[in-house]
Design a protein that fits this description.
The complex is a heterodimer of chains A (596) and B (131).
Chain A lengths: L4 E6 L2 H5 L2 H14 L6 E6 L11 E4 L3 E3 L7 H11 L24 H4 L17 H6 L4 H9 L2 H11 L11 H10 L6 E6 L8 H8 L1 H15 L3 E7 L3 H16 L15 E7 L8 H8 L23 E5 H13 L1 H5 L9 E8 L5 E6 L4 H8 L9 E6 L6 E2 L10 H6 L8 E6 L4 H15 L5 H18 L6 H16 L3 H6 L1 H9 L1 H9 L14 E3 L9 H5 L5 E2 L7 E2 L9 H5 L5 E3 L1
Parallel strand pairs in A: 1-2, 5-6, 5-8, 6-7, 9-13
Antiparallel strand pairs in A: 1-3, 3-4, 9-10, 11-12, 11-13, 14-17, 15-16
Helix pairs in contact in A: 2-3, 6-10, 6-13, 7-8, 7-10, 9-10, 9-11, 10-13, 17-18, 17-21, 18-19, 19-21, 21-22
Chain B lengths: L5 H17 L7 E6 L2 H5 L2 H14 L6 E6 L11 E4 L6 E3 L7 H10 L8 E2 L10
Parallel strand pairs in B: 1-2
Antiparallel strand pairs in B: 1-3, 3-4, 4-5
Helix pairs in contact in B: 3-4
Classes of the chains: A alpha/beta (596), B alpha+beta (131).
Chain lengths: 596, 131
Amino acid sequence: MAYKNYILVCGGTGCESSKSEDIYRDLIKEAELQGVKNEVQVVKTGCFGFCERGPIVKVLPSESFYVGVTPQDAKEIIAEQVVKGREVKRLLYKKDQNATNTVRVQDIDFYQKQFRVVLRNCGVINPENIEEYIARDGYKALEKALFEMTPEQIIAEVKASGLRGRGGAGFPTGVKWESARGAPGDVKYIVCNADEGDPGAYMDRSTIEGDPHSILEAMIIAGKAVGAHQGYIYIRAEYPLAIERLNVAIAQAREMGLMGKDILGSGFDFDVELRLGAGAFVCGEETALLRSIEGNRGMPTPKPPFPAFKGLWDKPTVINNVETLANVPVVLTRGAQWFSSIGTEKSKGTKVFALTGKINNSGLIEVPMGTTLREIIFDIGGGIKGGKKFKGVQTGGPSGGIIVEKDLDTPISYESLVALGSMMGSGGMIVMDEDDCMVDVSKFYMGFCVDESCGKCAPCRIGTSQMYSILDKISKGNGVESDLDDLERIGKAMTKASLCALGGSAANPTMATIKHFREEYLEHIRNHKCRAGKCKDLVVYEINPEKCIGCGLCARKCPVPCIAGEKKQPHVIDKARCIKCGECFKACKFGAVIKR
Amino acid sequence: MAKMTLDELRALREAKRKDLEKRDVEGKDIQIIVGMGTCGIAAGAKQTFDAIVDQVQKKGLEGQVLIRQTGCMGLCYVEPTVEVLVPGMPPVIYGKMTADTAEELVEKHLVGHQLLDNHILDRPAADILKN
């Protein structure tokens, strides 16, 4: 026998500290007292993320959403909701503190902070079952494109929607399609860029794994729009599950006549093949990607000519990123007007971000353009882990910059992020706290670019390794103040002179950290100090003889080993031999090991 | 299935839409949906899936329960995630459902019609296809 009501009490740390345990207990007690314990189950839940307004209590199936609940409210919630079947109006969440109207849970601002267009099917359908995709309006946009619209109309619709490239640069998708359509030639290609390579980014992987048909459908539509009959998905071999699901999806679509010759009897042919990349970051750059598909070494070529005119095997080619394509079916089924009603003036629709780093609720999120970083980090992400202090958020991966506290209220758009010295990038978002060292962070990204630079052009090949060696020197306490000028000078030269965006943006993380955290660089240079304790060469471990009880745990953990001492006597670290691994610091239960 | 015409595609969509709405597939009215993206699998979703299959068989519920996979729901911090649909009960998304929670899930939710403590999460966004 199922219960009539379920009362969910938020058991996240935020709510726990504001008496959710008492609320939970009192609700159970009241249910017994009022003789309805067989009609309601009181349940503790995970965090609802709405911590500022906690404690949160939610009642199912009515979806009543109560905020700021106290243990004294338990009696009324049971009496009203369970016994009489009506909501406790005074506790219901209101959009605005002064507003009198109450809203249902799906209308709450908080829930609408995420809005899922690209991820509409992720976590809903079985990605290996084409019928479930079809049931949720799948291939409906294709029907429209094949039977009701001319190529010009499709392009006009995509242009009107304001959809821009989600790979990072933000070029208007409709304009790209129009150029390729207008380019002379009988053979044209559609390429999907699924070579997601930013450290910490997995938006495209998740989209493909959760909803592979949306990409295929969009590619066929693009094919009709520009007059192409062959598509390639360039995906890295490091994504085996995504590849497997794409292969399943392609086989199903071909079998059902949704791909291949004479699609749905329309007379239009289109087929898609996969091309696997070996994981070179530069192959995410479109010209390098095309060279790789052709079977050549993945190196960029100068633009112009742009791929829309001279792309794959010198034929006009449209290259769109996974997330861009996943929007296309929705643009056609819901219409350009609906799509362009979401977002800001110049950045329409939503953006998917992979929210990682020092954040409580890490995950894949999708928000309307114009959402602020503060809303993403603190409302959706639930704030910084362990109550530490927010330091910065890195967007755009090795091509992006760091955004600091004072800029968190900026609404996200392609333009606003560039104005802050970062970029949209493909959507990686790494949150950093006070324990992250900015010299270390920029050294990490520069090291990544050194490894991934293809070496074709000198500014990138030489510039990245020069910048890396300067950063390395600073991180070891051997820097001089003029190094900062050198970093900026080399960075500017690379930005101007590099052949492709890899080199053109490789200096961004360093430039942004010097701009926002100059004093931290100077601390490394002048005082040989790393305040976050990340730069190993600047950290010294010592044992406080007053706190050390001589348990010997640190000495047993030390891998060198360089800690000595008699049992029950204070131990000593031999600093000359210490490799600064920090094992002793982590092991000590008495706070006797000091890091400085 | 053989190649379809436009009309066949439309008919299939209608039929499957109804299936999805009534949530009653192959005569099974209970559904357990496990998030199986790379992230979920890395957190143990395959083991969870297998453990749920075992537990459902143990209780003799194979005839009633459909166990499906889906992609990533985006709730990486609480993977593996499992959605449970039981007639007469609100749909629920659970997080941190490692294999050792399968017994409690089947015993308590499916048989006892009770929700599990400390695992419930909210769906991250409204479904744009439902408006």
